[in-house]
Design brief:
By secondary structure, this protein is α+β, with helices and mostly antiparallel strands. The chain is built from three helices and five strands; from the N terminus they run ββββαβαα. A hairpin with an 8-residue loop joins β3 and β4.
C-alpha cells in the first residue's frame, strides 16, 4: 500500500472581521483550506497594531522548521525578521524570497522591454511615414519645376 506524504506549511489562517484582519499562525497540511483544519496553532499576528503585532511560541516554530515545514512567504518574512530558527533555515528562506523578487523584477523588465519595443516601432513607423511624405512633397515640387521649365523655354523661343 502506498504511503501518503504530508507536506506541512506554516501559514496564516485569517480571523477577524471585514477590514480588520487578524491572523493565526498555524502548522497545517498544505492540502487543507486556508481557514480549515490545522495541526497546531503556533501564535497570532495582528497587522493593525503598532506594537506587539506578533506573538508566537518560538520553540514550536523552531520545531516545525527543523522537521521540514515550509513557511509561506509572509510567515518566512516574519521568521527572518524575528530571527527564529537556525541561520541555515533563515538563509534558505531569504534566498527563496529573493528568488521570487528576482522573478517578479524579470517579468516587469520583460513587460517594459516589450512596451519600449512597441513604442520604438511606432516612432520608427511615424518617422518613415514623415520621410515618405517629405520625399513625395519634394518629388511633386521637382515635377512642378520641370513642368514650368519647358513652358518657359517655349515662351522664350
Amino acid at each position: 500500500m502506498k504511503e501518503k506524504i504530508m507536506t506541512v506549511k506554516l501559514r496564516f489562517a485569517r480571523a477577524g472581521r471585514k477590514k480588520q484582519p487578524f491572523y493565526h499562525i498555524v502548522a497545517a497540511d498544505e492540502r487543507m483550506p486556508r481557514n480549515g483544519r490545522h495541526l497546531e496553532r503556533l501564535g497570532y499576528y495582528n497587522p493593525m497594531l503598532k506594537e506587539n503585532r506578533l506573538t508566537w511560541n518560538t520553540e514550536r516554530v523552531n520545531h516545525w522548521l527543523e522537521t521540514g515545514a515550509q513557511p509561506t512567504t509572509a510567515v518566512a518574512k516574519l521568521v527572518i525578521a524575528e530571527k527564529v530558527g537556525s541561520d541555515k533555515i533563515r538563509n534558505r528562506l531569504q534566498a527563496k524570497i529573493q528568488e521570487r523578487i528576482d522573478a517578479v523584477q524579470a517579468r516587469l523588465a520583460k513587460a517594459q522591454a516589450i512596451k519600449d519595443a512597441e513604442a520604438k516601432a511606432e516612432a520608427d513607423a511615424a518617422a518613415a511615414e514623415k520621410a515618405e511624405a517629405e520625399a513625395a512633397e519634394k518629388a511633386a515640387a521637382a515635377e512642378a519645376a520641370a513642368a514650368e521649365k519647358p513652358a518657359e523655354e517655349t515662351a522664350t523661343a
